[in-house]
Amino acid sequence: MDRALAAREYASHLTDADLRLLAPAAPGDGAWLRSDPAALLRLLEDPGTFGTVLSQGPGEGPGGWAVQASPFLIFALLVQRAETDLASAAHVPERTGPRQRVPLFDAPALRDFLADTARRLFLAELLASFTRVASGRYRVRVAGRARTRRFSELDPVRLAGLLDAVSEAERPGVYRRLGDVSLFLTGVFPDYVTARALGPVDAGRLLRAAGLTGPQRERLAAKPAIELMEHLGARWYRTACELTPVRTARLAVAGDVAGRFRQARRVLNHLTDRYLLSAGQPWFTPPGS
């Protein structure tokens, strides 16, 4: 996805209220930005916009976040802020267990990930998509009998069960969302993934759903939960790309992220530690709550 297309995608997500926040002093309350996506993108990338939008007067939310802003605008600015945060960082904390951190000197790789406009857009869209989690029931035949099963977008095991119920044409969408939930959980709720997300039975189900061979399943099942989910998430994205008849620019970005899944996850870890789950910012409901 080139920069011009990414700019138009940003514009399509923003509300009229978002545009007023981005250009409060401009004539027309910022509506002109819809017809000038390049200018909109320059505003989003301006380091000063973060403070301007997220600390504006009336209607201020907890911690200084303007409640008039849509979740997408807030996440777009936070992802952009991460690029600023990491511009001069020598290292970034990495989790080695629940509430345990060690410095990892891979900040240049994270800066490289964030240097691409389309990848920044991808992360903002991902975060916004999980502010409301889809769940429900579906019917599937097991041993000749119809069964009702539940699914939730925050439960990769149950979400993978949809692969047995949907048509071939719908499978790429399920694989894509499996990649999304893998990235979201490891990025925003890594302690949950480490401590509670996958037991041996659930890990085995996901590995079988991924179509891996027996030796591959045994090797991956022995890995820590975060590494297992990284591998599966990248595989889900690649499978979605392979099975989709027409590979759109948006799906091509998912394929690119598949090859950089760990960097994407660690950017989200940084955002989570700094901003996403701070006091008074209840954007996401913890899994299982």
Give a short overview:
The chain is mainly alpha-helical.
Key words describing this protein structure:
single chain, 289 residues, mainly alpha, two-stranded antiparallel ribbon, two-stranded antiparallel sheet, 15 helices, 57% helix
Write the layout of secondary structure elements.
Layout: H1 3-13, H2 16-22, H3 37-45, H4 47-53, H5 71-86, E1 92-97, E2 100-104, H6 107-114, H7 117-129, E3 135-142, E4 145-152, H8 156-161, H9 171-188, H10 190-197, H11 200-209, H12 214-221, H13 225-243, H14 249-258, H15 261-276
Antiparallel strand pairs: 1-2, 3-4
The topology string of helices and strands comes to HHHHHEEHHEEHHHHHHHH
Helix content: 55-70%
Morphology: globular
The largest sheet is: 2 strands, antiparallel
Number of helices: 15
**Total number of beta strands:** 4
| Biggest sheet, spatial arrangement of strands | 1-2
- Residue-averaged pLDDT, rounded? 83
Helix/strand/pairing category: mainly alpha
Low-confidence stretches: 56-63
State the distance separating the first and last CA atoms. Answer: 37 Å
